[in-house]
Specification:
Layout (H helix, E strand, L loop, with lengths): L47 E7 L7 E12 L4 E5 L4 E7 L10 H4 L4 E7 L5 E5 L5 E7 L5 E9 L3 E3 L2 E4 L1 E8 L5 E4 L1 H9 L5 H20 L36
Parallel strand pairs: 1-10
Antiparallel strand pairs: 1-2, 2-3, 3-6, 4-5, 6-7, 7-8, 8-11, 9-10, 11-12
Length: about 260
């Protein structure tokens, strides 16, 4: 994925750089009790959860973790907000070099580690429908001028008490306000296959998932047609903190 537009899987900016801001809380807030007037197993607006990605080279480990604020959680759609200034976990090369600066030929084979950082981009709204092998991210400029949708191809998310877990599939799509779209990060997708992070069958499934997303874009269905670009976060929301146990094993897995 290119560093000039979106650096979604490496923990950098997405949709342009902005000014970090907001006030952090000491740790991520646990979901409220399910008896609080909503369906069991659903988070309430304002709850804080983690959105995590497993390491593609070692699926036992998490290499990206981002605290998010729940906007909506229904059987049809999970919508969450990542505010500017959100503390997060991202991968870097073992010597601390940002991943995107490493030449593509060795980007996925050089040793890595994770570091704590901060999201310096403008806020990101993430939309995910159960079972879809992608999530849709919305980006704005600093003045809330809508910039684009980003279709992040990924493993369907698994829910647990503290959030959701997935695995990035390298290949993505960018969708613009005039409804035209383009593939993104095809070079990284190809390199991941050369480095054995995806086999040919998995790569074919990812490409097929992208085509399914394109069909929805071409038909201009939700969430693209649902007006989310006009959504704004509650100004009373605080920036969630990153819990010390951000990489804990998921417990109480649920659909």
């Amino acid at each position: 994925m290119t560093a000039d537009m979106v650096d979604t899987t490496e923990g950098g900016t997405a949709g342009g750089r902005g000014t970090a801001g907001g006030r952090s809380t000491p740790g991520a807030r646990r979901p409220a009790d399910d008896t609080a007037g909503r369906p069991a197993g659903r988070w309430a607006p304002g709850d804080h959860i983690l959105w995590r990605y497993r390491d593609n080279a070692d699926r036992r480990q998490f290499h990206i973790a981002r605290p998010m604020t729940v906007v909506q959680d229904t059987p049809e759609l999970l919508a969450v907000w990542m505010a500017p200034g959100t503390p997060c976990i991202k991968p870097v090369l073992d010597d601390g070099t940002p991943v995107y600066r490493e030449p593509l030929a060795t980007r996925y084979t050089r040793p890595r580690r994770t570091v704590r950082d901060q999201w310096f981009g403008t806020g990101v709204l993430k939309l995910a429908r159960p079972g879809d092998p992608w999530s849709v991210w919305l980006f704005w400029e600093d003045d809330w001028q809508f910039k684009n949708w980003y279709v992040n191809l990924e493993e369907p998310r698994r829910r647990w008490t503290g959030g959701i877990d997935s695995e990035d599939h390298f290949l993505d799509l960018c969708v613009y306000p005039d409804r035209h779209w383009e593939w993104r990060d095809e070079d990284e997708f190809a390199q991941a296959q050369r480095d054995g992070l995806l086999n040919s069958a998995q790569a074919a499934e990812v490409r097929s998932a992208g085509r399914a997303a394109i069909a929805q874009i071409s038909a201009w269905r939700g969430p693209f047609a649902d007006g989310w670009e006009d959504w704004r976060p509650d100004p009373a929301w605080e920036v969630p903190g990153l819990p010390e146990d951000w990489d804990r094993a998921p417990d109480h897995l649920r659909s």
